[in-house]
Specification:
The chain has about 260 residues and is of the alpha/beta class. It has helices spanning about 5-15, 15-25, 30-45, 115-130, 160-170, 175-190, 195-215; strands at about 55-65, 65-75, 80-85, 90-95, 100-105, 110-115, 135-145, 145-150, 155-160, 225-230, 240-245, 255. The chain has 7 helices and 12 strands. The strands form 3 sheets. A 5-stranded mixed sheet has the order 1-2-3-7-9, with helices on both faces. A 4-stranded mixed sheet has the order 6-5-4-8. Strands 10-11-12 form a 3-stranded antiparallel sheet, with no helix packed on it. A hairpin with a 6-residue loop joins strand 4 (about 90-95) and strand 5 (about 100-105). The radius of gyration is 23 Å and the shape is globular. The protein starts with a helix and ends with a strand. InterPro entries: NERD, Topo_IA_Znf. One of its GO terms (molecular function) is DNA binding. This is DNA-binding protein. Pfam families: NERD, Zn_ribbon_Top1.
């Protein structure tokens, strides 16, 4: 038996390993984690009574500077709920006002955009599209996965089925049945066609935003953005320095070279 035949036979005996490796790789990608998280939230939202709550998912809307993508929208007479999904694990630190939150897994820490701020853009886009009172729009952030909040979170930031409790806690009718139908029609007619091209265009837009943000200097103490400031008094009056944008909460400063 020649060397080539030996190699072919060996490959045939272990062929099943390659699909397993490929599947393992796919399930660890951010794309799959995001998709899996959105699927789980969609299954949760299905528990809401269909005659009262109308679910819309994967909505991409045009904005003045590109597009914005909304995971789920729930429309009811009790308001319009904009749902942002985060499939993460580890400890989560953050507050409503911080620009960035922290994810910590053992000794590894990373920063990510405050999802409340992220969802606020979605909310404002819908406000402009629907031309309704902002008091009828509610932001909901749902964490899926083995994560634990290590700081107090607002009521609209929840784990898994907590989003259902938050949505159901709004029991005052803010919209009449015709308004509900009009909102659904306006969202469906105003969104971009679902598909590969729309998703790719949105990904390009998001990458541009991330690049702009990563080009900015970050505070080494709290992770907020550093801004250029001018000393008003003292021996350094008139000189420029980097100051934390979270001042006075964070007073970190660095020399401007």
């Amino acid at each position: 038996m020649g060397l080539i035949e030996i190699l072919i036979n060996a490959a045939l005996q272990v062929w099943y390993i390659f699909p397993v490796i490929l599947l393992t790789y796919i399930t660890t990608t951010p794309w799959f984690k995001g998709l899996w998280g959105e699927f789980q939230v969609n299954m949760l939202l299905k528990r809401l009574p269909k005659n009262e709550y109308h679910r819309l998912k994967n909505i991409t809307l045009p904005t003045d500077n590109g597009t914005t993508q909304i995971d789920h929208i729930v429309v009811s007479q009790f308001g319009v709920f904009i749902v942002e999904t985060k499939n993460m694990k580890g400890w989560i630190f953050g507050s409503a006002n911080e620009k960035q939150w922290t994810q910590k897994i053992y000794h590894y820490s990373s920063k990510f955009q405050n999802p409340i701020h992220q969802n606020y853009k979605h909310l404002k886009t819908l406000e402009a599209l629907l031309n309704i009172n902002i008091d009828a729009l509610f932001s909901v952030v749902v964490f899926i996965g083995k994560s634990e909040f290590k700081t107090d979170m607002p009521d609209n930031v929840t784990h898994a089925s907590g989003c259902l409790s938050y949505i159901r806690s709004h029991s005052v009718e803010l919209l009449d049945p015709q308004q509900v139908l009009d909102i659904i029609n306006n969202i469906e007619s105003g969104c971009l066609a679902r598909g590969f091209a729309t998703n790719q265009a949105h990904k390009v837009h998001v990458k541009e935003i991330i690049k702009q943000k990563t080009d900015q200097k970050l505070c080494t103490k709290c992770g907020s953005y550093m801004v250029l400031r001018e000393a008003k008094k003292g021996q350094n009056a008139g000189s420029t320095f980097w100051g934390c944008s979270s001042f006075p909460k964070c007073r970190a400063v660095e020399k401007f070279n």
